[in-house]
User: Fold these one by one.
Assistant:
Number 1:
Amino acid sequence: MRITSKGQVTIPQEIREKAGLLPHGEVEFELRDNGEVVIRPVRAVAGGVREAFSRVRGSANAAQFKGMSTDEFMNFLRG
């Protein structure tokens, strides 16, 4: 496998699938003392905005939100 002048490589599909490397996902690199380079997916930690949206995902028409102004809804999301 060749590395481009920009430092890019193509990870074979089979390896991406087995390692859980998804399109548009993030990875992290580790350089070990023996010179090996390890690449692994970054597991996103739900927090902040993602956590707020996960609380209401699929419930935009729920009775608790009916009649809420945009400001009230944004305050709800922000906690």
Number 2:
Amino acid sequence: MNTERIHKEIAKRLGKVESVLDIGCGNGATIRFLAEYVAHEAIGIDIAGASFSEEWVSQDGNFRRAECIREDAYSIKSFSHNRFDAVVTVHAFHELSHPISALHEVKRVLKPSGKILIADFAKGHEGEKIWGETYYSPKQVEAMLKKCDFTQIDVKRVSGENFLFALAKKEKEKNE
């Protein structure tokens, strides 16, 4: 699935938000897209990616900020509880050796009613043979999200491709 199609799907599923965190931001292409079209503030983390910070006025006249920092998805120390409206991970979920631990950390940094969106290769993708990687089925991703108490879980395989999108929500806190 090409990057442009993935970005369009992210924008459609998340809508407009104030802040978004991208886990596994790599070269920053998705961060820049998110900052321009989805969020006023887009911050990415990557254990090995390039660090950068950019600010500009977008086409709609609003101030935008895109930043990528070195950070571990299992212990996102740079950000407080309830910090982001949304968290995305594109082509990176399968790279997590402990996805449940990362999902717990995602839940911590998400605001109540915040959303997580996973866009990744699905089980059966040729990369499993070519690169020896392991991808998850929609049912496996759904089970992981349920185990971490996310709600309104919607996991779909893209028709004709071994690619999936998963969207879920952090439940509001009990005392709200």
Number 3:
Amino acid sequence: MYNTNDTELIEMITDSREYEKGYRLLIGQYKERLYWHIRRIVKNHDDADDILQNTFIKVIKNIEKFKQESSLQTWLYRIATNESISFINNKKHVSADSLDNNVLTVVSDDEVDYENVKLKLSKAIDLLPHKQKIVFNLRYYDEMSYQEIANITHTSVGALKSSFHLAVKKIEDFLKKEI
């Protein structure tokens, strides 16, 4: 798909003649990345789909207010992150409890069960506090710079580095015990 820059997308969306095309391009460019960002926070496909829809609805309603003080991607991730956190807070469900029901075992001492490792990594991430989980996911999976994450989370770069370091340490400790 043709990749449009932020300015072009916003111009298309705010132009009544190109509004639909602009939104199709915006969704085409960001849907998958935002979905996986949300999915890593909420873990459930259906919930992630709902939150993604809510994210794009908010974008549609508020695009006129976007001041372009940050990149469009940063703004979209901020909305997706806030929607995910709101969802979790409203649901008040600790996903770690449901993961505890999955007893995982390594097939043998000689071979590594990569699915098991991925599940344990997922469980370790789920056990992190919300802020550390978001910072870890954005840095590790989305490979964002600390500055980009700072723009999304409204947190200082120093605080983010500390959160990421703590998250990595907690994950390492968890995995050492589990694997």
Number 4:
Amino acid sequence: MSVQSVPDIAGLAEHLRGVTVEVTDAGDLLGSGVLWPAGCVVTNAHVVRRPEATVRLVDGRCLRARVLARDVDADLALLGVLGTGLAAATLAEPDTVRIGSFVAAVGHPYGLRGALSAGIVCAIGPIERNGRPWIQADLRLAPGSSGGPLADAAGRIVGVNSRAAGSLALAVPLSVVARFVETARV
């Protein structure tokens, strides 16, 4: 076992806020999203149910977004946005997160912009009969956090937050998200 330094939590929060957007519809906060490479936003399918939404960037700009793809079973949606100077999240290598890994989530719970929650990964794998994989983390998610990033201590995205299950957060693993995005862009 190697000794690791304590992550710079404030720096991590600032970095993740820069790649996390608010997703709204007609002014109502629906959830969060992650600025993905190539000018897209990844969020949850349960966050966007109409063909269009608005994403609000950390700098306050609001951009129209069009739903390019939705997968209700995986709870993922891909949004196309038009804008310049968009940041993009740094992705971890798929399936590198482990039980015991430090993770952080940023979202907009109850309209609180850029709220951070941190914890550790408790389990990875299916928890339901459908066999879908989940990253289960000991951190708080609240309404408005759905669709936001789950990141490692270096700020690399390891999953997309989906929902709370009791006191645990459930996130879609990056390997599932990456397959979804790749398929949606074809």
